[in-house]
Amino acid sequence: MNPMPMSAAELGIDFQLFRTVCAFASGKGGVGKTTLTGNSAVKTAAQGVPTLGIDINGQGNLRRELGYDIGDQGAGFLDSMKNGTPLVPIKNVRPNLDVVVGGPKTRELSQLFMVLAQEQGPYAAFLRLAQCLQPLLKDYRVTFIDAPPENPNLLMMCLCAARWLIAPVKCDVCSLEDALTDIANAFKAARQVNPLLELLGVVHFGSPNGATGIHDEVVEETRKHLGAHAHVFDSAIHLSVKTAKRCRERGLSARELADAKLPNDRDLGAASLALAEAHDKLTVEIMRRMKMRLEQAA
Ligand SMILES: Nc1ncnc2c1ncn2[C@@H]1O[C@H](COP(=O)(O)OP(=O)(O)O)[C@@H](O)[C@H]1O
Ligand SMILES: [Mg+2]
After folding, report:
1. Considering only CA atoms, which of 81, 79, 77 is closest in space to residue 90?
2. 144, 210 in Cβ contact below 8 A?
3. What predicted TM-score, i.e. pTM, was given to this entire model?
């Protein structure tokens, strides 16, 4: 291989193979990326779709969403990325769901990125995750990446290993514009390397249930910053603090929590059911839209 590859092809990367890889990504933390990764992955797996989750976060929070053990804290992930070898997921976090585990060790990825960029050039650095993920893709029908907010280079790596960007936004006063501008910039930068990357849609996360006025604002702002055809998913994930807290404490998706009807959670009743329904609807919408866009692109 050329020591300074100047294209994805020189690295053996075929972006067509990434046709069902979704990155939940945003320049901001606390907007629901990990929550959406966990809930979507559990839902597709429960529907019988072989699903891969990837946690590339130093906090390794996906583990809390899905309730698996801390494992190697991302050491295996880091090793694969150092060596350019296939990622090694832990198997059967749920039937049909495997996960590449993140954690503190993945914090070293930002340094690895710099070394790769210096020694092998920007393509090798931006495409390292794609290179390590590509050999696994034949085993899964959908992949969800929980992208890290804290480091723009790692965000780029995620967007260069995905076909679809799904961008959650939270509608706090004044952060929406910033968040959408960051997303637009990251998207444009990643498209220079990964020309098949598309914005699948924006997810409106964390407003009160039934806040249609705010939802309309999200749609309007999204179109302003991401283009007139930018899509906002109809299914928003509404604010439901206690239910979300219980999900993380128990390592269950919203649907699993609602279905489990655990003795101490009975008081959540309608709230947990409403959140489960919102997540289910969103995942169905994501999968449908991905299928539709792929058919249009064919
Ligand atoms: N529907 C919800 N309502 C309120 N809080 C939520 C909801 N869903 C998730 N949360 C909580 O919001 C916080 C941020 O979500 P998270 O998915 O970790 O965001 P990110 O991955 O973007 O940093 C977490 O503490 C999570 O448990
Ligand atoms: Mg997170």
Report:
1. 77
2. no
3. 0.97
User: 247-267, pLDDT tens digit by residue?
Assistant: 999 999 999 999 987 776 666
Q: Which domains does the chain have, with CATH numbers?
A: 18-240 (3.40.50.300)
- Is the model's pLDDT at 280 over the cut of 70? yes
The Cα–Cα gap between 3 and 38 comes to 38
Beta strands of 26-68 (E only): which ranges? 51-55
Ligand 1 atom 11: residue of nearest CA: 244
| Ligand nearest to the Cα of 65, by number | 1
Structure confidence at residue 8 (pLDDT)? 93
* d(C-alpha 100, C-alpha 90), whole Å: 6
CA of 237 to the centre of ligand 1 (A): 10
Q: Please report which ligand is nearest the Cα atom of 58.
A: 2
Q: In whole angstroms, what is the distance from residue 140 CA to residue 146 CA?
A: 16
The C-alpha atoms of residue 20 and residue 230 are separated, in whole angstroms, by 19
In this structure, what token pair is assigned to residue 151?
């480091």
Q: List the end-to-end C-alpha distance of the chain, in Å, as a whole number.
A: 31
169 three-class SS? strand
For residue 37 and ligand 1, the question of a CB distance below 6 A is answered with no
**Closest atom of ligand 1 relative to the 240 alpha carbon:** 3
Q: Using DSSP, how many helices (H) and how many strands (E) does the chain show?
A: 12, 7
Residue 70 pLDDT exceeds 70: yes
Q: Which of 28, 35, 235 to mutate to test the pocket of ligand 1 (most atoms within 8 A of CB)?
A: 35
Mean predicted confidence (pLDDT) in 261-275: 80
- Of the listed ligands, the closest to the CA of 168 is 1
The per-residue pLDDT for range 152-188, each reduced to its tens digit, is 999 999 999 999 999 999 987 567 888 899 999 999 9
Q: What are phi and psi of 82, to 5 degrees?
A: -65, -40
